[in-house]
Amino acid sequence: MRYTRYTRFIKEVIVDKGGGKSSASGRSSAPELATRDERKLRTRSSLLDAALTLMQQGRSFTSLGLREITREAGVVPTSFYRHFRDMDELGLALVDDGGATLRSLLREARKESAPVSDIIRRSVTIYKEFLLDRHMHFMFIAGERSGGSPVIRSAIRNQVNLFVLEMSQDLRRLNFLPHLSTATLQMLCGLVVNTMLNAASDILDMPPDEPTLEQELLDNFVKQLRLIFLGAISWKEPVAKP
Amino acid sequence: MRYTRYTRFIKEVIVDKGGGKSSASGRSSAPELATRDERKLRTRSSLLDAALTLMQQGRSFTSLGLREITREAGVVPTSFYRHFRDMDELGLALVDDGGATLRSLLREARKESAPVSDIIRRSVTIYKEFLLDRHMHFMFIAGERSGGSPVIRSAIRNQVNLFVLEMSQDLRRLNFLPHLSTATLQMLCGLVVNTMLNAASDILDMPPDEPTLEQELLDNFVKQLRLIFLGAISWKEPVAKP
DNA sequence: AATTTCAGTGAACAGTTGTTGACAAACATT
DNA sequence: AATGTTTGTCAACAACTGTTCACTGAAATT
């Protein structure tokens, strides 16, 4: 048992064993999965993808069944247990992926080195692209944020809080709104993130190919953010009683 | 068939038939359900209550089953169909109830004839009382708002939009923030309502009897609203190009 | 008083669910 | 080359699901 863990660690360190075990079929046409761990990871992520795909079809995660997922993933139900103890554990994996997506959004936003004019509109554009690109993760996060099982709900809440914290630290580092206290800055970021996620729900629920409706939603989103930041600018910290 | 509908209508007009059909048991101890329609309504609402009760125990509506609900309500599964075609229809009934709750919240808020000082804090207090009083409706609305089945999701969206509209009309009538255009006022109300519902999720998810945490959440909620209204005050409508 | 209407019951159905244990074959380790 | 490890499969299970049909008894109508 301990040996196994050790060898897995080795696997992760040695990147390429130099494979090429002579197989009959050609290398390029049939992709020939190399190591065992790789294959395990592959079916694992096909399970995760199956869950997301089903949710994309309108189902909510909480209503998904184990068998349903394995069916969609193209494996036999019992295979599920080789990867997750139960549905909750799969859900938590999805939460982690969603958190990673959020974090990468933040990384992308950091590149945008602040030319202060119309920064909101441009951030929203970035956000929308992200939204459409990883719409399934956002649907999951925004959808189960206050709907799903308690375990998953609180896991999502943690990830979102982390995101809020990181965002507020970013703003501080950029010396954005320097007159705000740390607590107020975090409150602001919480408000912004909630608004973001609500907008995500709205945008992702849209019937496809309705450009005017989409534009309306986006404009509304931008207006809301403008109003929030306008409030942040004229915010006065209450003075502590002497 | 038409007769039936007619007699039902009569039932609703004639308030008291003068009942007192001589029954063995006393009037006060055993409540003796009077008319048939009343009894039907009673089990109907016991089905609705059963759904809400189960959700209170951490389940999400989408994951509830028909049998589960009838079991909780204390009737046999087949009785369900006397009241609802399927779970979606029951869900829609819950949405209606939730909408009524929202509307009554608005009615309550109207009584508070604006002494502008600290109006936000007092509104939040009203809101919190409402939240705790009808916590199950709010859990349902806030939870399934972007989680549940598409039918229910869009029904909730309608109710919430209606609420937003009504709220914006109220503000206009009170001559509150008269420099805002109607569209902006609605945008503002949408933002406020989203913030309200997010706060509802947070507050209702709290572990019970943690007064300091509760106070933190409420303070944060108040701060967010303050910031929003601060933004609304200093909002300048863009001038249309001449 | 006779008749109709109907909310709630009971038994039964076909289908699906989560979970178990034994097994095969590809892989990894010795 | 021999041995152990492990991913995925198969068959089977008890439990539960939504839905059907015929039925009962009391309330409502005639």
UniProtKB/TrEMBL annotation, chains A, B:
DNA-binding region(s) from the entry: 65-84
Presence of keyword Transcription: yes
GO molecular function, one term: DNA binding
UniProt keyword terms in alphabetical order: DNA-binding, Transcription, Transcription regulation
Domain HTH tetR-type: 41-102
NCBIfam families per the UniProt record, alphabetical: PRK11202.1 (NF008402)
Protein name: HTH-type transcriptional repressor FabR
